[in-house]
Amino acid sequence: MKANIRITKPKPTMAQKNLCGKTVKRENAYEVWQAGTWTWYVLKKYSANDDKPYQRWFCDVVTPICPDGELGDVYVSEIKHNAVRIK
């Protein structure tokens, strides 16, 4: 006699929704961080969890060398270690 055993997979937990996943302009930056003369405007976050290792943000970085800003990915840990959030 065969036993009717039903194996069900556990439902995956809902992942946190990334509310900062759309790229915006500098004027509408999600966050602004500053350290001395350096300013990071966070224009996009690739993940909702900023505590993951090697997590990146797409930023417009304003420095004395690039006063108009330069676009690129920056490690979240680098920003949080060196800067203070101002917005």
Short description:
Helix content is 8%, strand content 32%.
Question: How are the secondary structure elements laid out?
Answer:
Layout (H helix, E strand, L loop, with lengths): L30 E5 L2 E8 L10 E7 L7 E6 H7 L1 E2 L2
Antiparallel strand pairs: 1-2, 1-5, 2-3, 3-4
Keywords:
87 residues, mainly beta, 1 helix, 5 strands, 8% helix
Percent of residues in beta strands? 25-35%
Oligomer: single chain
Strand arrangement in the largest pleated sheet: 4-3-2-1-5
Discrete helix count: 1
Characterise the protein shown here.
This protein has 87 residues and is mostly beta strands. It has a domain at 26-85. The protein contains 1 helix and 5 strands; from the N terminus they run E-E-E-E-H-E. A 5-stranded antiparallel β-sheet has the order 4-3-2-1-5. Strand 1 and strand 2 (38-45) form a beta hairpin. The longest helix is centred in the C-terminal third of the chain and has 7 residues, at 76-82. The radius of gyration is 20 Å and the shape is elongated. The termini are far apart. The mean pLDDT is 89.
